[in-house]
Design brief:
Keywords: Coiled coil, Membrane, Transmembrane, Transmembrane helix. The protein is of the alpha+beta class. The chain is about 55% helix and about 15% strand. The chain is built from 7 helices and 4 strands. Strands 1-2-4-3 form a 4-stranded antiparallel sheet, with helices on one face. The protein is elongated and about 110 Å long. The chain starts with 8 loop residues before the first helix and ends in an 11-residue tail after the last helix.
């Protein structure tokens, strides 16, 4: 019969005395393997996202070059046109730009907007209805009517105008502000030259500074006349 080898008593004693340390080392080893496996997975995922974004950027740059060639405009002019459109019709509704637009119109026309209320019942995802009350003489009110569509830096339409009393200079207007996020992947047939000509006509009606508009949009100290909610 073969004799079974017995564990050295000293080694057995060492294992018993250091069992806690050994367990910790094993746990750390396993944790290290799991951590690096997770890290490698996240790095791979991030690299995939970066590659996708790089491809999207390249595709947009190619489209911009093609659009510039088709319209005869340089990339800088196209960027400026895009900024104007984003101010007129932002991707998402921005209450500060609404307040800024109304205040700008008041200063430009002399028609004082003294209150406004959000009409949620008449609003939708891409349209926000605002009931505006203001005072002014006939001249200032006519100036407001001539300017309000684009003069405040936002695209605004009106569905209803009321004279509050025949004896006063107070008016109430139902204004609509628009917002719409356009996906870069939307492929539609478009006559770029015709669209550009129409946009150039629109630009002549828009008189606001992109720099001033951007500063106000990010300012937290803008004076709020009343709670829009």
């Amino acid at each position: 019969m073969k004799k079974t080898k017995k564990i050295n008593p000293y080694l057995k004693h060492l294992l018993r005395e250091n069992a806690g340390y050994i367990a910790v080392l094993v746990a750390l080893f396993i944790s290290t393997i799991v951590f690096f496996s997770f890290l490698n997975s996240k790095l791979s995922e991030n690299q995939t996202q970066i590659s996708t974004l790089e491809n999207d950027i390249k595709e947009l740059q190619d489209k911009q070059s093609l659009l510039a060639a088709a319209t005869g405009q340089d990339a800088g002019s196209l960027d400026n046109d895009v900024k104007i459109m984003q101010n007129l019709i932002p991707d998402f509704e921005d209450y500060f730009s609404i307040l800024y637009a109304l205040d700008t119109l008041s200063q430009k026309t002399g028609f004082l907007v003294n209150s406004y209320t959000i009409n949620l019942g008449s609003s939708s995802t891409d349209k926000l209805s605002v009931v505006v009350s203001g005072v002014g003489n006939p001249d200032s009110f006519l100036k407001f009517l001539n300017e309000y569509n684009f003069g405040g830096g936002r695209l605004i339409t009106s569905e209803k105008i009321e004279l509050e009393t025949k004896e006063s200079d107070a008016f109430k207007l139902n204004l609509t502000f628009y917002s719409k996020k356009v996906s870069a992947t939307n492929e539609k047939s478009l006559n770029y030259r015709t669209a550009l000509q129409e946009f150039q006509k629109l630009k002549s009606k828009v008189s606001f500074s992109l720099r001033d508009s951007e500063v106000v949009a990010t300012s937290e100290s803008y004076p709020i006349k009343s709670n829009p909610f």
